[in-house]
Amino acid sequence: MNWTQAQNYCRDKYTDLVSGLDQLAHLADNTESWIGLFRDTWSWSDGSISSFRHWNLGLLKDGVNKECATVGEEKWDSAACDEKKPFVCYDGQCVSFTCHHIEYHLIEEAKTWDEAQRYCKEKYTDLATVSDMTDMKRLREIVNTQEAWIGLQSNPGQANRRWHWSLPGTQGVALSELKTYFPGHEPHSGNSDENCARNVGGKLLDTLCGINKTFICFNGTEESPKSFIYIKELMNWTQAQNYCRDKYTDLVSGLDQLAHLADNTDRWIGLFRDTWSWSDGSNSSFRHWNLGLLKDGVNKECATVLKGEGKWDSAACDEKKPFVCYKDKVILINEVMTWEEAVNYCRENHRDLVSITDLNQQRWVEARAKNASTDHVWLGLRYTCLMDLWFWLNDNLVTYENWAHSDGECDRCYYAAAMNKSGKWVKKADTETFNFICALK
């Protein structure tokens, strides 16, 4: 049969064509035969990396011109993308670690924030941490019409007030790093309420968050002139943040993005500081306040998810409310093993060595790696000489990379990938011994 016919035969009568390097290693017959490996130029609208194809054609479909896929009675075909057809949307969330790094659990028994934190640490991992709008949508679905604690608290004081970028996943910033961007006496310290930043002539000024300004939104993942949208409407900082998140991606964030700005007009950017921190010690800068102003508690306060739209408010931590716990899908193993020993340990006790397919997962694993007793932790990424490529143990394609310099290149076999304390991936001989991170079942 040709390749697609062979694939259809296997799917009809069994599961699929033999797939994955682990399966190939078990083949006992050296006869020339089809396996389930193919390449094409097709990609999914939502950015997912699913390799599933179900073409109706006798041959694997690879469009000559730009084409889009259609579903027939069973199999798929393709057509010019400007043809008009009905279409299918999806609404929902996937549940594997390749989609989400944590799972949320609503506990409807009312407790104080401290009681809720203890409960979550005993039964799950911790009170809910929220990393981005995807997490926020999942949280809103779970909480529904209730008001519930999450793991964010504020204990006001100058020592714990830190600068953050609005765009999730953007590298945090130390004041020393920002000093060159602030002129003279800026930013104000002490008891200053000027906790939001604006860009004026290439310099940063700290300002009261309630003042109305024009602002700059960022859209997409690439930093090109089209990625920056200059909004002329006047809004306070939190309103500007909500506007950018509703219509684009977020307020312009990060020093790399600032370097690309072509307009020196006085505008809000996505830099703010506050005294809020997460119960589990993570460094997520994501905030979703319901207030017109950036919330910075005067007294010790804790964050709660509001009813309906899911925005956040705060309340005294000794009030009793339902709460949301999260269960981690990765775990740091503080034992020292070779890469293969780590693989066997994870598969016997959990699921597998961890795979990382996007920036959000990278940040989550990076936070766990900082607590390791070794300078590096093993990841589920291995180099194969046979095919001259890096591959994840769960057979995901390497679509996201965070190599230190050129460490992704290999000059010999028996290499695996490890993460250092800075979150960078480095190649290491698989006989070296490190802590490691497992994906949970």
UniProtKB/TrEMBL annotation:
Pfam families: Lectin_C. Keywords: Disulfide bond. Residues 1-90, 104-218, 223-326, 325-439 form the C-type lectin domain. SMART domains: CLECT (SM00034). PROSITE patterns: C_TYPE_LECTIN_1, C_TYPE_LECTIN_2. InterPro entries: C-type_lectin-like (IPR001304), C-type_lectin-like/link_sf (IPR016186), C-type_lectin_CS (IPR018378), CTDL_fold (IPR016187). Gene3D superfamilies: Mannose-Binding Protein A, subunit A. This is Secretory phospholipase A2 receptor-like. It comes from Labrus bergylta.
